[in-house]
Structure formats: C-alpha cells, structure tokens
Design brief:
- The chain has an eight-stranded mixed barrel with strand order 11-12-14-15-16-17-18-19. A five-stranded antiparallel sheet has the order 2-1-5-4-3. A five-stranded mixed sheet has the order 7-8-6-9-10.
- A hairpin with a 5-residue loop joins strand 11 (about 335-345) and strand 12 (about 350-365).
- The N and C termini lie far apart (about 85 Å).
- Helix 9 packs antiparallel against helix 10 and helix 12 packs across helix 13.
- By secondary structure, the chain is α/β, with parallel strands linked by helices.
- The model is unreliable at about 150-155 and about 580-590 (pLDDT under 50).
- The chain has three domains: about 10-155, PAS domain (Beta-Lactamase); about 170-310, 2-Layer Sandwich (Alpha-Beta Plaits); about 325-575, EAL domain (TIM Barrel, Alpha-Beta Barrel), CATH 3.20.20.450.
- It is built from 24 helices and 19 strands.
- Bound molecules: ligand C2E and calcium ion (2 copies).
- One calcium ion binds near residues 356, 415, 447 and 477.
C-alpha cells in the first residue's frame, strides 16, 4: 500500500514515545497508518510495530464494541474528509482484556511538507485513569451514552451501516472505485464479490430477528478480518459486498467459508458468493456489483457455501433479460406474445377434457423466447399481471374462434402467480372479460403453482377462497416440485393436483418413485380430488398412470402446446387420442 513517509528521525521519535498516539493519512478514500507510538502499542496490547500497522490497515475497528463501530467510523470519516479537530469516546476490548475499556480519542489535522491530509490522534484509556473514582466513571458513562445516542442516530443516515459497522452501499461503491484504480496501478486484477446467505428468511423465522442480527454482525466482523475495514460493505438485509484482487482469491474464499462455520457458535447459514472479475470486461464498479449479484443469484439450490464467477452464459442470459424487460410493452402491443394450447386428456378415454394455455413470445429478431426466459423477469419486475391479463383476453378470443368453427369448448387453464393478486383485482378482471364475451366461468380453470405455498400461504388461502366463492375451479400446479407436504391435501381446497413432471421423469429410475406416485394418487382418490400427470411422453407412462387411477394426462405423447390454428386443425381431424393412436397402429399393420 502506498503511504506517506514520515522523515526517518521524526518517525523514530514517534516510535519511542510513551504517549499513546498515532499519525494517519487519508488518501484514496482510505485511512492509512503512517506512524504509531510505543504508548499506542501498549495501550492496545499490540506486540510489534509492523503487526500493529498491518492490523490497523486490515481492520481499524477490530476491538471496538460492535455497537460503536458505525458511529466512530462515521466520525472518523467526517474528520479526515473535512474536519480540523476530532473527539470520540468508544468502548474497546483487546484480546488480552476481560472487559470493555472506555477510550477517549482526540485528533487534529496537521500540515506537514505541503500536505494537509495528515492527522494525529491521541488516545486515553478513561477506565484506567478513573480506576477507584466511581462517581467520575459514572459521569463519563453518562456523557458517553448521551453522545452515543445523539451521534448514533446521525451515523445511521450516513456512510456506515449501524448493525455491522461496515460501509453502506453508496460509500462502499466509492471505496471500491478508488480501490480499483489502486489495483490497476499495482498491476493487479480487481474483483468484486457479492454475498448473500441462503435461507435467511427461514433462519429469522426459526431463531428470531435478534439472532439473525447477531449472525449478520458477526459476519460483518469476519468480512473486516478477511478483506480489511474499508473493503467490505453491507448493502441491505443479508446482502454484502467486498472488493479485493484476484491473486489468491480461491484460498481467501476457502478461509472465509471455513471461518464462517465457526461464527455465531456455529449457528450459521451457507453463503453464496458471486464474483465479477475485471478480466471479463472492465466496467464501472456499480455494473461490476450488479454482475456479481447476477452470478450470486444464479445458483440458489446448493446447501453449501460456494462461489460462482460471472461468465458469458450469464452475460447472454442478462442480455435476454434486458431484452425482455425493454421490449415487453412492445411485445404486447404488437401481439408478439400469444397463447399456445396444450390438450389435457382423460386417462381412460383419451378424449380432450381440458387445455392449458401457455404463453409464447415470438420475437421478430430473436425467434421463440420460452416462458422460463421471460416469466421470471416479468415476475421480478412486478409486470406478470399484465401478461396474465393479456393472456385471458387472448384465450377468450381463441374460444370465440373455436365456437365459430363449431368446436365444443373445454375448460382452459390459466396460470396465475400470487403476485398477480398483489398487483390488481385479478379475479374481478377475469370475471369482467368473461362476462363481456358471454363465456361461462366453467371454461376457465385457475392454476396456481405449489411455490405459492412457500411464498405466502395466507394469501394463497384467501385467493382460493375468493375464486371458489365466485364459482371458479382452482388447480394446484407442480405438486411435488418443492414444498409439498401431504398436509396440502386437506389444508387447501384445490379441486385437482397436477403432479409435477419430476415424478414422471423419475419413473423409469427406481421402484420407489412408482410407489410415491401410487400413494399420492391413492390419497387424492380417497378425498375425491382429481389428478393430472404432466410430462407424459411414452405409452408406458400413460399405461402406468391409467392403472394407478390418475384421472387426466398431459404431455408430448398426446400433443405439444399448439398455436391456435394447429389446435383448431387438431380438433377438426381427430377428436380422440385413443382412436388416433389406433388409427396410426392400423396404418402400420396395413
Ligand atoms: P407449467 O404450468 O408447469 O407448464 C407445463 C410446462 O411443461 C410447459 O412449459 C409445457 O410446454 C411443458 N410440457 C408439457 N408437456 C411436456 C412433456 O411431455 N415433456 C416436456 N419436457 N415438457 C412438457 P412452458 O410452456 O415452457 O412453460 C413453463 C412454465 O411457464 C409453465 O409451467 C408456467 O409455470 C409458466 N407459464 C407459461 N405460460 C404462462 C402464463 O401465461 N402465465 C404465467 N403466470 N405463467 C406461465
Ligand atoms: Ca401450469
Ligand atoms: Ca406444471
């Protein structure tokens, strides 16, 4: 680290002084230690001069009370950035001390060799000086607490996060921008890390917010120890960032993950770390942070701490997300999005009993964009309800076209997300559209994914209730994909369970998956709920499901999702999949 060099004689004089004081420099948005006195080393129980400088560079507030860090860090910043004088009182406990000591620090800006970014700070251990004088200690504590409250409130709105004492997002980005320049000067490759705990919400629910805060505070300390005081920041909640250089990064992360296991008496969560390295492409720090976050969010499934680099695949996905976000309005206006319809057939007769409407986005420049590429983007942006409202209108138009062609209507499933109900009066809107078109409610089935259970079970319950009161049928989609427990069966009054495709995928793999399907179907039969199996691709799947008593089936064996014209043609040519299958077989034999 480049730092101001005090003339040798002066530095030696400082080093031997028994008065506890330090000289600091403020450069590149960082406070750097220039010289320390022997008195300083003694006061803070530091063994050697070099070690002390290193420790301070790494984490200036290592031994300060966590509740005081944000306040003093903010005071320090104000002093070095603009102030002439400085006075702070805080609690400090070195590894050799049993209790916290009250430290009083007094500082002045000094002007030396034409530089005005140097500071001298004197330290006093008030606890020691006042030993035996109880009333003075109490007075001191009183003024300390008053000051703490007054300044603590101010610190909150400033540069430091008051829970962890780490720089907040705005300040961190400034520090990282400066740090990056320095790394380039030293021929090092800068990297930005974005960190997020997995399942923080569950941790808070289980252990309470106070325990959650303790974990975050302890983690803040670990980040300071690992990367240095001013090289890590807290963005919000359990989201943290750090900047460093790529040299030995893997080893640094391995140590971080190992140390994390010991934090908070081992009561911790797995950490996901996304990394953006400037070698991918030099970008402004804020963009690098966004990209590190994308990498961090890209692998959520793992139960172990891990890291992921931002790479070209994620870059392509990001471009796709941006395209979706920027062109969604235009896509609706120009009808680039439209429903495809996938038939759902009766297991026994092969007749089409229902259809599922699935959105397809056909871009004039990018071709077909799959729902998994645009639905999550719209959901994150709070725009999915617009798509679903658009879908209902187009589904109704398709029903009208069917009627004109003399085709009998069947209920069409509409996929809805819980967020739809937060964004608009979805049920009322669907009712109005149907009423205007003169179509009965029985022709629309609502599908809600099982993931909704993990998001907001109360809202889900009221949504089902509301649709039922209005006379709609509600199906549970993707049953068995994530959160399922058999309690759902009696706790939520769905009319039908759609078995997730995973069930069928596993069918060929072992006997247990056959038993699971059999059990689930048996249970639903007993309470009078119907079942649809999704992803039926082979005749063996179909036969097995028929024998189990699964009422309906959906999958490529019968048909892929079809555009309206193909769906109409399908109805006009073959109304029954069993007879269609038979016809095919007869042709082969002829
Ligand atoms: P989903 O509701 O579970 O839809 C079933 C998905 O499985 C569809 O994918 C369908 O094309 C696919 N599929 C059907 N049969 C088979 C098969 O035999 N084999 C295989 N491999 N796949 C099959 P798609 O159309 O890509 O939709 C993905 C998801 O996007 C849907 O999952 C649904 O959650 C969501 N989605 C689609 N359209 C809409 C919409 O209009 N609104 C909302 N909110 N979500 C939608
Ligand atoms: Ca569905
Ligand atoms: Ca599904």
């Amino acid at each position: 680290m480049n730092r101001f060099r005090l003339p040798d004689m002066l530095k030696e004089a400082v080093k031997v002084s028994p008065v506890p004081f330090a000289i600091y420099e403020f450069a590149e948005q960082k406070v750097k230690t220039v010289a320390l006195s022997k008195g300083f080393l003694d006061l803070f129980c530091l063994k050697s001069y070099e070690e002390a400088v290193q420790l301070l560079d790494r984490d200036m507030y290592r031994d300060a009370h966590p509740d005081d860090v944000a306040r003093i860090a903010d005071l320090d910043y104000k002093f070095v950035a603009n102030g002439e004088e400085y006075s702070a009182v805080y609690r400090n406990k070195t590894s050799e001390q049993k209790d916290y000591h009250i430290i009083h620090a007094d500082g002045r800006r000094i002007h030396l060799q034409g530089k005005d970014n140097l500071f001298v700070v004197w330290y006093m251990d008030e606890t020691q000086d006042m030993a035996g004088d109880k009333s003075r200690v109490e007075k001191m504590m009183h003024s300390y607490i008053t000051e703490n409250i007054k300044i603590g409130v101010m610190a909150r709105q400033n540069r430091y996060d008051d829970l962890t004492g780490l720089p907040n997002m705005t300040y961190f980005l400034q520090l990282a921008e400066e740090g990056k320049k320095q790394y380039y000067l030293e021929n090092k490759e800068p990297v930005i890390l974005y960190m997020d705990f997995s399942n923080m919400k569950i941790f808070n629910d289980r252990h309470g917010f106070t325990a959650g805060d303790t974990l975050l505070r302890e983690f803040g300390k670990l980040l300071r120890r690992t990367f240095g005081t001013e090289q890590a920041g807290r963005f919000s909640g359990d989201h943290f960032a750090a900047f460093t250089d790529s040299f030995m990064l893997k080893a640094q992360l391995d140590t971080l993950f190992d140390e994390l296991k010991k934090v908070n008496h081992g009561n911790v969560l797995p950490l996901r770390v996304g990394i953006y390295a400037d070698s991918f492409e030099p970008v402004p720090t804020a963009t690098a942070c966004d990209r590190a976050k994308i990498a961090c969010d890209s692998e959520r499934g793992s139960f172990r701490s891990h890291h992921v680099y931002y790479n070209s695949k994620l870059h392509e996905q990001t471009a796709q997300r941006e395209y979706v976000f920027n062109h969604f309005k235009e896509a609706l206006k120009k009808d680039w999005i439209r429903p495809y319809f996938q038939p759902i057939v009766d297991s026994k007769t092969g007749e089409i009993t229902d259809e599922e409407a699935l959105a397809r986005w056909i871009s004039p420049t990018r071709g077909m964009i799959r729902p998994d590429q645009f639905i999550p983007v719209l959901e994150d942006a709070g725009l999915l309800y617009k798509l679903d409202l658009y879908m209902i209108q187009h589904i109704i138009e398709a029903m009208q076209a069917k009627r004109e062609a003399g085709i009998k209507l069947v209920p069409v499933s509409l996929n809805l997300s819980l967020n739809d109900f937060r964004s608009c009066q979805m049920r009322e809107k669907i009712e109005t559209c149907l009423k205007e078109a003169g179509i009965d409610k029985k022709y629309i089935t609502i599908e809600i994914t099982e993931r909704a259970l993990g998001q907001d079970p109360e809202l889900l319950r009221s949504v089902i209730d509301d649709f039922h009161k209005a006379g709609f049928t509600v199906w549970l989609d993707d049953f068995g994909s994530e959160y399922s427990s058999l309690n759902i069966v009696d706790e939520y009054p769905f009319e039908l369970f759609k078995l997730d495709m995973k069930f069928i995928r596993r069918l060929g793999q072992n006997k247990i998956s056959r038993y699971v399907i059999e059990c689930v179907i048996e249970l639903t039969k007993k309470i009078g709920i119907e079942t649809v199996a999704e992803g039926v691709e082979t005749e063996e799947h179909a036969e097995f499901l028929r024998q189990c008593g699964c009422t309906k089936q959906q999958g490529y064996l019968y048909s892929k999702p079809l555009p309206l014209a193909d769906l109409l043609a399908l109805y006009q040519n073959k109304m029954n999949y069993k007879s269609a299958q038979k016809e095919k077989e007869e042709c082969v034999h002829d």
